[in-house]
Amino acid sequence: MGRDITFGQYYPGDSFIHRMDPRAKILLSILYIVTVFLCVSFYSYLAVFLFLAILILVARVPLRSVLKSVKAILFLVMLTAAINILFYREGSPLLQFWVIRITDEGLIFSAKMALRLLFLVIGTTLVTLTTTPMNLTDGMESLMSPLKVVKFPVHDVAIIMSIALRFIPSLMEEIDKIIMAQKARGAAFDSGGLIARAKALLPILIPLFVSAFRRADELALALDARCYNATPNRTKMKELKFGYRDLVASVACLLFMGVIILLRFYPGV
């Protein structure tokens, strides 16, 4: 299970995207999310697919690592598609039985929703694969710095988000170890009905919570032993600076958004 989770993991590299400013990557990822929600036609989704393919090539990230993020949410995508197929009422009916009514527009709408979920996950995964957790923390802290005017704990929030992000792969790895240990003791997780499988998860959840609290306590002790504190006068070894890469990426993303807007409001173009 843990090997299928790529969100929060960093893939070392020296590509164009790896060397971008983390603030630019965060802002452009938000712009990308907004752009994906503007897609209405399959031509728009095809444009998003081509844009993502170019990003993966430029980032020089293994396609296998990117597809692992898709595998992790495959059940959610299938569930979303099934719900939309069964409850979308507009369009001509293709199959009708009792309260079940499947329409042609329902199939199209569910396919678009599934593509939207997949593209959103792949796009955000590329950000974490090409940015170290520390750079993400620095970028989020810098972007939230205007909130310091209202006494908002910007640094504390950034550190919390960074720690949570770094704990994701660690917890997934811990789940793998617990499952293997329980299977070695004769536990069965794939047999029985839904209730039996839910009960079988208890021997996993309890050790997982104990391990998570232990890791959090060890981290707190390590921070305290190093006299860490979120003072307002903290300095950084590497100052963040926008460069030509960020400008080029911003222009490319704006052009991409322009194409999606054209396809949305002027489908005949």
Please render the helix and strand layout as text:
Elements: H1 22-37, H2 42-59, H3 63-72, H4 74-87, E1 93-97, E2 100-103, H5 104-129, H6 133-143, H7 154-184, H8 194-200, H9 202-225, H10 244-265
Antiparallel strand pairs: 1-2
Could you characterize the architecture of this molecule?
The protein is flat and about 65 Å long. The protein folds into 2 domains: 1-153 and 239-269, no CATH class; 159-229, no CATH class. The protein is built from 10 helices and 2 strands; from the N terminus they run H-H-H-H-E-E-H-H-H-H-H-H. It has a two-stranded antiparallel sheet. It is mainly alpha-helical and 269 residues long.
Largest sheet: 2 strands, antiparallel
C-alpha termini separation: 45 Å
Q: What's the alpha carbon Rg, rounded to whole Å?
A: 22 Å
Low-confidence stretches at least 5 residues in length (pLDDT < 50)?
Answer: none
Query: How would you describe the shape?
Result: flat
Q: Element order, helices and strands?
A: HHHHEEHHHHHH
Helix percent band: 55-70%
Estimated structural class? mainly alpha
How many H/I helices? 10
Widest sheet: strand ordering? 1-2
Number of individual domains: 2
Strand segment tally: 2
User: What average pLDDT do the residues reach?
Assistant: 82
Strand content: under 5%
List keywords for this structure.
single chain; 269 residues; mainly alpha; 2 domains; two-stranded antiparallel sheet
Brief rundown of the structure:
67% of the residues lie in helices and 3% in strands.
